[in-house]
Specification:
2 copies of one chain form a homodimer. Chain A is α+β, with helices and mostly antiparallel strands. Chain A has 6 helices and 9 strands. Chain A binds a DNA duplex through helix 5.
DNA sequence: CGACCATTTGATATGGATCAAGCGATGTGG
DNA sequence: CCACATCGCTTGATCCATATCAAATGGTCG
């Protein structure tokens, strides 16, 4: 229980500039209301219990949300990849902390502006609701993962990552460390590592490097995924 | 893995009458749009993958939502007590099934009516969003529970139930069986039982009957709750 | 090249599952 | 009203998956 979750050292809160309103994706009014910020690897984006004044969208890189329990264990709530929105809580305060997994560009949007807009435009309101609904679904799937065996959890994680990877390519580029995966799945790094080598030996995956995973036999993984 | 989760036999889908629009609580427009139904113990309210045509509010009794995995394991997503709303998914289909834990009265509300209303009334839209947000929070707390030790999970469950019990009294009336608790916490009935007797021996709780739990030392439980 | 950090691999310990039996309450048929 | 079956719960004995402790390996950066 103590091997887990040493809180990673924090680097500078945000490393670069605040660009005014980049217009790279106008499919939603939200895009127009934010400014882009850059966060270095392991930089904190917000802390839990901070007022949830903003909401965020990953442009590039990857973000993790997490909570640290009293005894030091860390639970990762989710990983957010380009296109994903995070920090959208119903409450006035964040329930989790958020950090950049790797150097990341994040669109930061003032929550009050969005709420005002939603009050007038029911389409925006519905969009907000839908995003929260998807978060809920993800959390429920996370619950489902956590009752399974180590093999099933790791397989489930790989399948999820493969699904979300750009173009759903069969080679996954992992932004996160084994410790991150372990803290997401409620396992230890040793178990993650052992399970991956086991998958490799049974030819379900290949591991060109430790952060690159090639899915060789999706059916075998899905089967494990119970 | 096989001792868990035999799906309980289904009784009659709903046992009694459909009362037109009971006006017992008008604090929300939702109350006016539903009709009350009675479900017997273990009766199915809806099945997963059914179109989510309605949304529900517990009037009396208790409801569980759950999912059964391919191998027969059952995971309970949550328990809903009087006043709680359930079945509010962002998707067009239910992600979980729902059953009455004990004989229950449930207010059934047509989803399309609510959605129409929300499109016009931004207050209703926000209310819907808030309910989903609370569900999200609950699911996230559920995740947090599932990474903990058996003691911590059971203690967390008791504290949660005590908080939600009418008047937050120190004696909890459990509507659900040990199997339900086990499937909620990702443990076995044996572990639930052993943990409860352990709490009893350490004087943290008393067990007048198996379904009545008196909290004697909330601090001790909270401490376990990590 | 050397230091550091992430990952893998190995040996052992342990919490909770599994298998099994007993117990108490509730209900049913004789 | 009692005998007996049933069901939910508890308790005991043993096993096993994963944690823990420990060390080796490999990759990256100054």
């Amino acid at each position: 229980m103590l091997h887990q979750a040493q809180i990673p050292a924090r680097k500078s809160a945000f490393a670069l500039s605040i660009n005014p309103t980049p217009k790279q994706n106008l499919d939603s009014p939200l895009e127009m209301m934010g400014s882009q910020m850059r966060f270095g690897r392991n930089a904190e984006i917000y802390g839990e219990a901070e007022p949830a004044e903003y909401l965020y969208k990953v442009i590039s890189g990857a973000v993790r949300t997490y909570k640290v329990l009293a005894d030091g264990r860390r639970q990762i709530g989710g990983f957010y990849l380009p296109g994903d929105i995070f920090g959208l809580e119903a409450g006035a305060e964040h329930a989790f902390s958020a950090e950049a997994v790797s150097d990341s560009n994040v669109l930061v949007i003032k929550r009050s502006a969005v709420m005002d807009l939603a009050a007038r435009d029911s389409g925006v309101a519905q969009q907000l609701w839908t995003v929260t609904g998807h978060e809920l679904q993800r959390a429920q799937e996370h619950v489902l993962l956590l009752i399974k065996s180590a093999q099933e959890r790791v397989a489930g994680f790989l399948v999820e990552m493969a699904k979300r990877a750009p173009g759903a390519a069969s080679t996954i580029q992992l932004a996160m460390s084994r410790q991150d995966i372990a803290d997401y799945l409620g396992l230890t790094i040793e178990t993650i590592s052992r399970t991956l080598t086991q998958f490799e030996k049974s030819a379900a995956i290949a591991l060109p490097t430790s952060r690159q995973i090639e899915i060789r036999n999706r059916a075998a993984l899905a089967r494990l995924n119970s």
